[in-house]
Specification:
Length: 287
């Protein structure tokens, strides 16, 4: 399982790369030779096999077109694998480009004109902003859920066992900014626990919180359970009961204005049994 640490991860394929398929024309010459007693018979006409149509080609190879995805930072490792599997099944899709960041940042970029085919948000609130802004096509679908854990240094040297421990002024605690899905969820959990925390920093995506704890720049941070899992031992995770009050639903949809068949095809793939199996393997809960 891959580890993703940068606050913004961009998987960029070579631009302008288009797959072209050679077209074959098969000519079968059937020449009837005159036999004894049949002299003067004309030769049979040559038969030319019809050239395959583009529609038949697309039907045979699956989805085609551009696939630019804007996805929540917590989806990085999972979507890297999903995109790889999707392209393996749909080789005529142009090499995908995936941008990962905080969902609120991505909505702002889309509203300002960033072009993409698919948007995957880590919460309903930011997807609702995208829908209200007229950015989405059709009705976005919930495809996974996630819960928070307290990320601590390996071995938990500070002995953190609950949200209440994060109120200790001697601890350096990092949270996501309130407008970011993980920040909104953190606020709900802390409120449910009756705990007030003064963070040393508020980050624009959950990956940045994880990175600070991983590098020893913070004693603890609130991240998703999936982030702890993909850290590959870079942090330990402390579960807490109040996480049940802050379950995030992840939502995906095709963006309005795209004409690429690959857009809805990828959305359907994420919602498919194969996509759901990959999400579960990375620690996401069912929709």
């Amino acid at each position: 399982m891959r580890k993703t640490t940068p606050s913004t991860v961009r998987a960029t394929a070579l631009p302008g790369r288009t797959r072209q398929r050679g077209r074959g024309v098969v000519v079968i010459g059937a020449l009837a030779l005159a036999l004894a007693g049949c002299a003067g018979q004309p030769a049979a006409p040559a038969d030319v096999a019809p050239e395959p149509t583009s529609e038949a080609t697309q039907e045979a190879t699956g989805a085609t077109g551009e696939l630019r995805i804007m996805a929540a930072a917590s989806l990085a490792a999972t979507f890297d694998e999903l995109v790889e599997l999707f392209v393996a099944e749909n080789p005529d899709v142009d090499a995908p480009v995936v941008t990962y960041d905080g969902s609120s940042t991505l909505v702002t970029q889309l509203a300002e004109g960033a072009e993409a085919e698919v948007f995957a948000s880590a919460d309903q609130a930011n997807m609702t902003k995208a829908v209200d802004a007229g950015l989405m096509r059709g009705t976005p679908q919930v495809f996974a859920t996630n819960v928070l854990q307290i990320a601590v240094e390996p071995g938990n040297p500070a002995g953190i066992t609950s949200l209440a421990d994060l109120a200790d002024p001697a601890l350096q605690v990092v949270l996501c900014a309130p407008e970011v899905p993980c920040g909104a969820a953190s606020g709900k959990a802390l409120t449910a626990a009756g705990v007030s925390v003064t963070p040393v920093s508020e980050e624009q995506n959950v990956t940045a919180v994880l990175k600070k704890v991983t590098l020893g720049e913070a004693d603890a941070g609130l991240v998703y359970a999936t982030d702890v899992q993909v850290s590959d031992g870079g942090v330990d995770g402390v579960t807490f009961a109040e996480s049940a009050a802050a379950v995030n639903s992840y939502v995906i949809g095709a963006l309005d204005g795209t004409s690429s068949p690959a857009a809805q095809a990828f959305v359907d793939f994420v919602l498919s049994p194969t996509g759901q199996k990959v999400l579960a393997a990375y620690g996401f809960g069912p929709a």
